[in-house]
Amino acid sequence: MNALLGSAECVGKYGNGFRGQYDSQKWSCGLICFNSETHLYGRYWGCLEEGDALHFEACYYQGIEYCIKHGLQNFDAGAQGEHKIPRGFEPVETFSNHEIAHPGFRDAIENFTLQEAEQNRLYMIEAAKSLPFKNKE
């Protein structure tokens, strides 16, 4: 990674744009994160060329550095991804709100999500065991 810079070109008061280059003179990746007074929420990203660890540098390590630099208490790196757990991102429950107009389809989705909720709860417990932190007990 030659450079990954927090851009001065912000996306409103609570938006941050980052851009980076990887072994070239042209910009090859970019991402947008949003923040509150205490949290950084990320990472909508894309790249023009792949590079070794580019995704992790851009989407995770730069976000962590930004939080430290700006005194933010939490970095929510987005939903999904077992690859985040060894990097210290604890599994957290996420929510999604949708309006499903068709009653039969809505009922089928609701039934599935009720069944899925217990499996997600068990998965989060197991996934948390893989965090790279020392046992506090």
Tell the overall outline. Answer: globular
Radius of gyration: 18 Å
What characterizes the major β-sheet?
Answer: 5 strands, mixed
Q: What's the helical proportion of residues?
A: 25-40%
Beta strand %? 15-25%
Strand arrangement, major sheet = 1-2-3-4-5
The span between the termini is: 38 Å
Mean pLDDT: 79
Number of helices: 2
Order of helices and strands: EEEEHEH
Low-confidence stretches: 1-10
Question: Strand tally, please?
Answer: 5
Oligomer: single chain
Structural class by helix and strand composition: alpha+beta
Structure, described:
With 137 residues, the chain is an alpha+beta fold. The chain contains 2 helices and 5 strands. Strands 1-2-3-4-5 form a 5-stranded mixed β-sheet, covered by helices on one side. A hairpin with an 8-residue loop joins β1 and β2. The radius of gyration is 18 Å and the shape is globular. The termini are far apart. 15% of the residues are buried.
